[in-house]
Amino acid sequence: MSKRMDRQSRREQIAEAALKLAEKGVSFITMESVAKACSIVPSALYRHYRNKDEVFDGLRDLVRDKLIENATLAAKEEKSPMATLKNLALRHADLLYKYPGIPRLMFSDKISGKKSLRRKAFLAVMNEYRQAAASIAEEGQKSGELRTDVKPEDIVFMLLGTVVPPSFIFHISDGEFDPRPQVKQNLMLFEDAVKFRKNNEDV
User: pTM here?
Assistant: First the structure.
């Protein structure tokens, strides 16, 4: 007999299934389709998420957890802020490659409506993620590894710029383009651009 999942594990499984369905389009996320993907009956799904809106809230929490986990793991695995930022970018690229439903979700009407509270909640998640990365960049400036004539927040935007365009091409090519090799190339340019030099003001 298989071990019964605890409530949190089941909620995460449901959110993962919904995110997988989002790869085909956000409209494919229904209570029935999510329940089927989890091999449970709809009535069991309603014990964890009362409606589809709550499923989307669960997706937001899932995306947040994965982003923050990446930042935490990158910091643990590396010994310098520069290496941590590059690790974080590679993890971000891997995340978007593994879960192509994320951009579909982020830019869907379910999220991006002008007065959508859910849009504001997703924006808060992204701001939290950028702040975590900015803290790493600030550490690099204090240690003398990263240039100090630019804001940590601008370093983070440049870092995200190594990931987002290749991932966008992956998205619109329907998976035919693998963004990860290009991200690695971009990170070499990123490192060259933001590393500290004695005469950064002349760069």
Answer: 0.89
